[in-house]
């Protein structure tokens, strides 16, 4: 399908060919950039944290509620979580991504400032990724995910905890953010 | 091109060439947001792998199906490939990009905590191998860069191989993905 520009002349007959070209095909060219629900293909959806999430002496995962994301039925999304963190060395850290209900598929990986201890990515919908931390300064971590929705919309939470329960504050800091882009 | 509020027609009204040309100009106004291939200006073009790409006992680069995008002449694009992979510790792994012929400039590099990069953390030409020292665990790598294309349109394609031929499966997994943004 190609875009055709036409200048109409006074008294010109609107033939079926011209009508299809100008009123149908040109609109369809523009429509390729817009999903049926009116969302723009490739546009970004942002969210950020407005408070710190603090974990102290706990290895139980807690939601980062402001970064919760909804994947619609049969939709595919590429999502990056940019987490700004304070991580005591003895506690290490772990994150998990949990959809409800389960997605058709999910994959996510993490690139922390410090080294991961085992796997750097997972395709499991009920697991977590952990890494060893240094603890001498605030650290960033990139969590990159691809979500493919199933028959129903799914609510997806990202969760955080200490890997080893330690009496010290481990934090996901205010200003952490999420960028999501819906794929064709 | 400016946007003119669409007219509200009344029964029996005569629609002339000027009306059609206003309609045309409003379409052109919207069309400026969408390139001819359906990519929305300033938005993200994306794709994903729908199956695993497996290399066994080979150092010959193979295309990673689904991780490619087309680039027109004289266009400028930024891109990020999010790659979930695994490779035996004896095989290691390498990534590269093939590009349109004679680009004006290209620069790409990798963000990876582990596996470590042993050769070429960044590259300024298509076909340059970025080599990883893999650990045999699931790995996650982001390869990002910018391309200022020359006179030839073509394709940016991610390629993958073992760095040392080894009888084992080295895999780029299903649901790896890329994002690309046309900036001019």
Task: Sum this structure up briefly.
Chain A is mostly beta strands. Helix content of chain A is 9%, strand content 41%.
Biggest sheet of chain A: strands, sense, closure?
8 strands, antiparallel
Structural class of chain B: mainly beta
- Give the oligomeric state: heterodimer
Distinct helical segment count of chain A: 1
* N-to-C order of helices and strands of chain A: HEEEEEEEEEEEEE
3D shape of chain A: elongated
Describe this protein's structure.
By secondary structure, chain A is mainly β. Chain A has one helix at residues 16-31; strands at 44-48, 53-56, 62-63, 69-71, 76-86, 93-100, 105-112, 121-122, 128-131, 139-148, 154-161, 169-172, 177-183. In chain A, the strands form 2 sheets. In chain A, strands 1, 2, 5, 7, 8, 10, 12 and 13 form an 8-stranded antiparallel sheet that branches. In chain A, strands 3, 4, 6, 9 and 11 form a 5-stranded antiparallel sheet that branches. The longest helix of chain A has 16 residues, at 16-31. With 184 residues, chain B is mainly beta. Chain B has one helix at residues 17-31, and strands at 44-48, 53-56, 62-71, 76-86, 93-98, 105-111, 116-119, 122-123, 130-133, 139-148, 154-161, 169-172, 177-182. The A-B interface holds A 2-3, 5-12, 14, 22, 26-27, 29-30, 32-33, 40-44, 76, 78, 105-107, 109-116, 118-123, 142, 144, 146, 148, 181, 183-184 and B 16-17, 20-21, 23-24, 27-28, 30-31, 33-34, 36, 38-40, 43-48, 82, 84, 111-114, 137-140, 142, 173-177, 179.
């Amino acid at each position: 399908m190609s875009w055709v520009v036409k200048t109409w002349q006074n008294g010109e007959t609107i033939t079926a060919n011209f009508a299809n070209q100008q009123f149908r095909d040109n609109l369809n060219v523009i429509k390729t950039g817009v999903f049926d629900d009116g969302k723009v293909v490739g546009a970004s959806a942002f969210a950020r944290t407005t408070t710190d999430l603090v974990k102290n002496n706990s290895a139980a995962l807690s939601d980062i509620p402001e970064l919760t994301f909804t994947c619609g039925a049969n939709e595919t999304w590429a999502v990056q979580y940019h987490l700004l963190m304070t991580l005591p060395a003895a506690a290490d850290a772990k994150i998990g991504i949990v959809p409800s209900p389960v997605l058709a598929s999910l994959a996510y990986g993490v690139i922390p400032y410090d080294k991961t201890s085992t796997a750097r990515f997972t395709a499991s919908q009920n697991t977590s990724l952990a890494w060893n931390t240094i603890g001498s300064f605030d650290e960033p971590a990139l969590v990159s995910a691809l979500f493919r929705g199933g028959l129903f919309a799914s609510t997806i939470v990202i969760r955080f905890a200490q890997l080893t329960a330690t009496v010290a504050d481990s934090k996901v800091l205010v200003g952490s953010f999420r960028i999501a882009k819906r794929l064709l | 091109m400016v946007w003119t509020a669409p007219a509200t027609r009344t029964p029996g009204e005569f629609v002339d060439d000027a009306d059609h040309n206003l309609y045309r100009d409003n379409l052109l106004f919207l069309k400026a947001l969408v390139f001819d291939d359906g990519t929305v200006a300033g938005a993200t073009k994306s794709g994903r792998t729908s199956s695993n790409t497996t290399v066994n006992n080979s150092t010959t680069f193979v295309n990673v199906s689904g991780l490619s995008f087309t680039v027109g002449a004289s266009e400028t694009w930024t891109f990020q490939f999010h790659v979930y992979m695994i490779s035996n510790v004896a095989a290691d792994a390498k990534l590269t990009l093939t590009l349109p012929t004679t680009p004006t400039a290209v620069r790409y590099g990798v963000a990876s905590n582990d596996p470590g990069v042993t050769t070429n953390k960044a590259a300024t030409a298509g076909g340059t191998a970025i080599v990883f020292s893999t650990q045999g665990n699931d790995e996650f790598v982001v390869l990002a860069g910018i391309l200022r294309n020359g006179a030839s349109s073509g394709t940016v394609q991610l390629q993958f191989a073992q760095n040392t031929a080894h009888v084992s499966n080295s895999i780029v997994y299903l649901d790896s993905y890329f994002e690309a943004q046309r900036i001019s």
